[in-house]
Design goal:
The complex is a heterotrimer. Chain A is mostly helical. Chain A has 4 helices and no strands. Chain B is mainly α. Chain B has one domain: Helix Hairpins, CATH 1.10.287.3510. In chain B, helix 2 packs antiparallel against helix 3. Chain B starts with a helix and ends in a 13-residue tail after the last helix. Chain C is mostly helical. Chain C has one domain. In chain C, about 60% of the residues lie in helices and about 0% in strands. Chain C is elongated and about 55 Å long. The two termini of chain C are about 25 Å apart. The chains are: A mainly alpha, B mainly alpha, C mainly alpha. The interface between A and B is large, with 41 and 45 residues.
């Protein structure tokens, strides 16, 4: 009985995802790109680098990289706490 | 609908991972299902930034007068991949401890919270 | 593992480490950067673990932990360099000091001396990722067995 309920829910999610995928904006024509055009045009003058993606990750949006470094550190500490030798 | 094939392919990846997450009993297969969902979501993020006939947004040896793709979804996907790695490492550590204490990898037998 | 695997692994580990350092160093000119280069360099540790067993990574838990801490502290200190304007301001870009020459506009060959604080941040994040992934791999190799004593 429970398996049929889970299967019905899975089919509803399938229908929703296919509808969302088919009715999106056409592939290759994004609409809201004013910020990215600014990044492409002014990245060599302000950040003095050729790689626009690295300039975004470290210079224009450096706070996200700080949060991600914290998450990586927390994961390593968590694994070190779980896998350890128990002294009996 | 034919022009949106990359988006539909990402949805197929998410659905395959969701099926492995719901209908499989082995804990390692559940972890693999979660990784497939995360890969589908990252691919969808990068695919939203494509401009027709665009090149990589890097000015080193770039061809002249070419439109560049949007760089912001690629920067967000970098962060998302590293966070997925952290989640997977913690999940696999939990699977190792469950196998060590209960001597089984069945998800339906490890149902008590303590002991 | 057999003799063939051990010989090839012994030859390939320095090559993989140098390729990871190359991807980190040229992060502001070519596709790559801190996170990608750190992940490439951590696959050398995985190659060591698979080819030689757990005996070869016994003494490596403390060095990876120190490397990760140094990378994290260096990243925050580099962010505090431009505290006169905001946090994470690129003060070294185009100012003539270390990594300070301005970049030529338009498509060009890459000049290594550009970038400001970006190459230094690439090194800090690359060392942090190498230390973190190496520590996770060493912990799974040493303590992931079937007994907890």
């Amino acid at each position: 009985m429970r398996r049929w309920a889970i299967l019905a829910g899975f089919l509803v999610v399938t229908g929703c995802l296919f509808l969302a995928g088919a009715r999106m904006r056409p592939f290759g024509a994004p609409r809201y790109d004013l910020m990215d055009r600014y990044f492409n045009a002014w990245s060599q003058t302000e950040a003095a680098t050729n790689n626009v993606v690295t300039a975004i990750v470290f210079d224009y949006r450096g706070y996200d990289t700080l949060g991600e470094a914290t998450v990586l550190f927390t994961a390593v500490v968590g694994v070190a706490l779980i896998l350890r030798k128990v002294k009996r | 609908m034919i022009g949106n094939t990359p988006f539909v392919a990402c949805m197929v990846l998410v659905l395959l991972g969701l099926w492995a997450l719901l209908f499989r009993r082995n804990l390692i297969k559940v972890v693999i299902g979660l990784k497939i969902i995360e890969n589908g979501v990252n691919l969808y993020l990068v695919a939203t930034g494509y401009v027709h006939k665009g090149v990589v947004p890097i000015y080193t040896y770039a061809p002249r007068d070419a439109a560049m793709v949007l760089p912001t979804p690629q920067a967000l996907t970098l962060t998302s991949i590293v966070i997925g790695l952290a989640t997977t490492a913690l999940m696999l550590a939990f699977v190792v401890v469950i196998h060590r204490h209960k001597k089984t990898l069945d998800g339906r037998k490890a149902t008590e919270l303590s002991g | 593992m057999s003799v063939v695997v051990r010989t090839i692994a012994r030859m390939l580990v320095p090559v993989v480490l140098i390729f990871g350092a190359y991807v980190i160093l040229h992060g502001h000119l070519t596709p790559g950067g801190g996170f990608q280069g750190g992940a490439v360099a951590a696959s050398a540790v995985a190659l060591l673990l698979v080819a030689f067993g757990t005996e070869s990574v016994k003494g490596l838990k403390a060095p990876f932990s120190v490397l990760e801490d140094l990378g994290g502290v260096a990243f925050v200190l580099l962010g505090l360099l431009g505290i006169g304007y905001t946090f994470f301001f690129n003060v070294l870009a185009g100012s003539g000091g270390l990594f300070g020459s301005p970049s030529p506009l338009g498509p060009n060959e890459g000049v290594l001396n550009t970038g400001g604080t970006l190459p230094l941040m690439n090194w800090a994040v690359g060392l942090k990722v190498l230390g973190g992934l190496g520590a996770v791999l060493v912990l799974f190799g040493l303590f992931g067995g079937d007994d907890d004593r």
